[in-house]
Every structure is written in structure tokens, then in C-alpha cells.
């Protein structure tokens, strides 16, 4: 294992302060609730500010494509802050999944065509990868197919639960062709594309079922050679969600601690009761352990790709359980008020449960982690 340095530089700390200040102003609870009721699920003007003016969308993109030339370590900070604020914006879909796919595929022309739009916030992109059954460790299991015609490629089939699939102008679709698994670019408004918004438990993150009926497509990279790139993107996705999760878990832990300090029963703050003290101590340990695992995943994504598969599964398993536990206990500590629609606790609980399932639940990632560890000892 390589040397792991999880300390942040002064520049990275300043990035965190900048992003947190921006999200405190633009993503308060009232705005999150408003956006939950809108068709798009996010504010395009606020997204453009975050993406272009603060530079979040191009943070980890090379300068030649309009990015800032930083890496996943800086993006990790943004993801944690986004999770803390329950940010309603296409960060995960566009900045992590789609941009990482374009970078991982061997297609310089596609990068030049698509990445500048992502970097300046004008392109919202989505990756249509997984199908029924969750993470695809067997690429042959994908049912969406691609066919070559005289005028080019088309894709056909259904991709369920695509993050921001209902608003993305660029769809990156994983499909099987005669040579194997490939990735295709499809315009969101192309003929043969039907988008069906999906009702979800977590209203702060939009998903849609995408139906392709011989939709015109552009092959990205080499035909049949996409699986190594997509497997890498799935690992990045697991790390990204874990970072979001520890941001949210830290926020609900802070909510619980603040309430325990101020809520008085029997003439004392409830935080002085031993049962509450023990509960909060256990939560603090769980959240900080998960944060360490998520930071390790972020470090591996930035500095040590060989360790990324193991680090990604460790991070996703740890953070998924910690967030659900913290969000649940936060409601318990708040008592009756924590169960009401007016209190933000339920928003975090729903995000915790939904993100726990995205790109593999903790059981899946523990099994995968065990496989990596056994292989390392052989």
C-alpha cells in the first residue's frame, strides 16, 4: 500500500470555505424544499454560478478542455459539502459520472467536443449505465443494444433510474454491440429518446427511465472496449457517493448535538443524560470512521488507481451504513418534532437511504471488498 496523506492544503481548505459559503446562501432548507417541487429538480442559474463562476464543474478537468486542471482530491471537497447541504444540482451525474467517462475513454475528439460544455456549466450530462440488478460486474448482462447502419449507429432498449436523465442534454449510454460493450453519445432531444421521470423516495435527486428506440448515437472510443473505463467510473461513483454521505452524516450529527444541548427536560439539557451521551458518542465514532474511509477513497481516486477498487468498496460500505444510522438516530434524539414534515431531518433520512442503494449497497461492496482482500493474499 502506498503512503496515504489525507491532510488538506491551505488552498483546499479555502476551496471548502468558498463552496460552503456559497451553498449556505444558495442551498438553504427552504430552497431545497422549493426545488423538490420543480420539474427539473435544480436551479439552472444557481448551477451555472456554482459550475462556471466558482468553477466546480471543471475543477478536475484538464485545462485544455476548459477545466482548472486539479484532481479528484479537490472534487472530493465539493462532494462532501454538497452532501452536507443536500444540494439539488447535477454534480454527481455530470461532473463525476459523465465527465469521468469521457476522460476514461480513449477518444480525444469526444473530449474536445463535450468536456468544455461540462466545464462551463452549459452541458448537463448523464451516464446511462446500470440496468435492473444494480452494479454490473458482468458487462454481458446489459440488455441495451447498439446497431450500425449506413448512416451511423443507433441504440435501443431501456435504462432505468438514470440520475438527472430527464434534464440532461447529453446522454452517455452503455450498450452492447457485436464487439462487446461500448459507450455511445446520444442527444437528449434526439428522435427515438423517451424520458419518463421516476418517483423516488429521495425527492432531492432526480431520476428518470430512459427508453431508446433506434435513437441516433455516436460511438465513443473503440467499439467493444469500454468495460475497463466503465468499471473505473463505477469505482469513482462509489467514492463520490461516499463523500456525499459523510457530508450528510456530519450534518445530521451536528443537528443532533445542537438539539441535545438546547432541548431541556426535567430542568436539564437532554445532552446531559447518559443515554443521549452514549448515543452521540457512538454516532461520532461511526461518522468519523466513515469519513476516514471516504477520504481514503478520494485519495485513491486521485493518487493511487491500483488501490481504488478496494478503497471504493470500503468507502461506500462504511459511509452508507454510517449515514443511515446517523440520520435515523438524529430523528430519535429530536423526538416528536423529528418526525414532522416541517423538520429537515426526514430529508436527510431519505437521502441516506436512497444513496445507500446507488451503485451498490453495503452488502454488495463488502462482498466485493472481501474478494479483493482474498485475491491479495493468494
What does this structure look like?
The protein has 378 residues and is an alpha+beta fold. It has helices at 10-26, 29-36, 44-53, 72-85, 91-104, 108-119, 227-262, 274-303, 308-334, 345-357, 362-377, and strands at 125-128, 145-149, 152-163, 170-177, 180-187, 193-197, 207-220, 264-265, 268-269. The protein has 3 domains: 10-123, Butyryl-Coa Dehydrogenase, subunit A, domain 1, CATH 1.10.540; 126-224, Beta Barrel (Butyryl-CoA Dehydrogenase, subunit A, domain 2); 228-377, Butyryl-CoA Dehydrogenase, subunit A, domain 3, CATH 1.20.140.10. It has 11 helices and 9 strands. A hairpin with a 2-residue loop joins strand 2 (145-149) and strand 3. The longest helix is centred in the middle third of the chain and has 36 residues, at 227-262.
Main sheet characteristics: 7 strands, mixed
At the first level of CATH, the class of the largest domain is Mainly Alpha
The end-to-end span amounts to: 16 Å
Q: Could you state the CATH homologous superfamily of the largest domain?
A: Butyryl-CoA Dehydrogenase, subunit A, domain 3
- Low-pLDDT sequence parts: none
Series of secondary-structure elements, N-terminal to C-terminal: HHHHHHEEEEEEEHEEHHHH
| Mean pLDDT metric | 92
Number of domains: 3
Q: If you compute it from the alpha carbons, what radius of gyration comes out, rounded to the nearest whole angstrom?
A: 21 Å
CATH architecture of the largest domain: Up-down Bundle
Share of helix among residues?
40-55%
Amino acid at each position: 500500500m502506498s503512503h496515504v496523506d489525507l491532510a488538506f492544503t491551505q488552498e483546499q481548505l479555502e476551496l471548502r470555505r468558498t463552496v460552503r459559503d456559497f451553498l449556505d446562501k444558495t442551498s438553504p432548507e427552504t430552497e431545497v424544499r422549493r426545488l423538490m417541487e420543480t420539474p427539473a429538480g435544480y436551479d439552472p442559474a444557481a448551477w451555472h454560478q456554482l459550475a462556471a463562476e466558482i468553477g466546480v464543474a471543471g475543477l478536475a478537468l484538464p485545462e485544455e478542455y476548459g477545466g482548472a486542471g486539479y484532481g479528484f482530491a479537490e472534487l472530493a471537497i465539493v462532494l462532501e459539502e454538497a452532501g452536507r447541504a443536500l444540494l439539488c444540482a447535477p454534480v454527481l451525474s455530470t461532473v463525476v459520472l459523465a465527465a469521468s467517462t469521457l476522460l476514461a475513454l480513449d477518444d480525444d475528439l469526444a473530449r474536445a467536443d463535450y468536456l468544455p460544455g461540462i466545464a462551463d456549466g452549459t452541458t448537463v450530462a448523464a451516464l446511462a449505465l446500470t440496468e435492473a440488478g444494480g452494479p454490473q460486474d458482468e458487462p454481458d448482462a446489459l440488455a441495451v443494444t447498439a446497431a450500425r447502419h449506413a448512416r451511423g449507429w443507433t441504440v435501443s432498449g431501456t435504462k432505468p433510474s438514470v440520475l438527472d436523465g430527464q434534464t440532461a442534454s447529453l446522454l452517455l449510454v452503455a450498450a452492447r454491440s457485436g464487439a462487446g460493450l461500448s459507450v455511445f453519445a446520444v442527444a437528449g432531444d434526439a428522435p427515438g429518446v423517451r424520458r419518463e421521470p421516476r418517483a423516488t423516495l429521495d425527492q432531492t435527486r432526480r431520476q428518470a427511465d430512459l427508453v431508446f428506440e433506434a435513437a441516433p448515437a455516436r460511438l465513443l472510443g473503440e467499439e467493444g472496449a469500454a468495460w475497463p473505463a466503465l468499471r473505473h467510473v463505477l469505482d469513482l461513483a462509489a467514492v463520490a457517493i461516499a463523500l456525499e454521505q459523510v457530508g450528510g452524516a456530519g450534518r445530521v450529527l451536528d443537528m443532533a448535538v445542537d438539539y441535545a444541548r438546547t432541548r431541556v427536560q426535567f430542568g436539564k439539557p437532554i445532552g446531559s443524560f447518559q443515554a443521549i451521551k452514549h448515543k452521540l458518542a457512538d454516532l461520532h465514532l461511526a461518522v468519523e470512521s466513515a469519513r476516514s474511509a471516504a477520504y481514503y477513497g478520494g485519495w485513491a481516486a486521485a493518487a493511487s488507481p491500483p488501490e481504488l477498487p478496494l478503497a471504493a468498496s470500503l468507502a461506500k460500505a462504511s459511509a452508507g451504513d454510517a449515514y443511515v444510522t446517523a440520520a435515523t438516530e438524529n430523528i430519535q434524539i429530536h423526538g416528536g418534532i423529528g418526525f414532522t414534515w416541517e423538520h429537515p431531518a426526514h430529508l436527510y433520512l431519505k437521502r441516506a437511504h436512497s444513496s445507500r442503494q446507488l451503485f451498490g449497497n453495503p452488502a454488495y461492496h463488502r462482498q466485493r471488498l472481501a474478494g479483493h482482500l482474498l485475491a491479495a493474499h493468494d
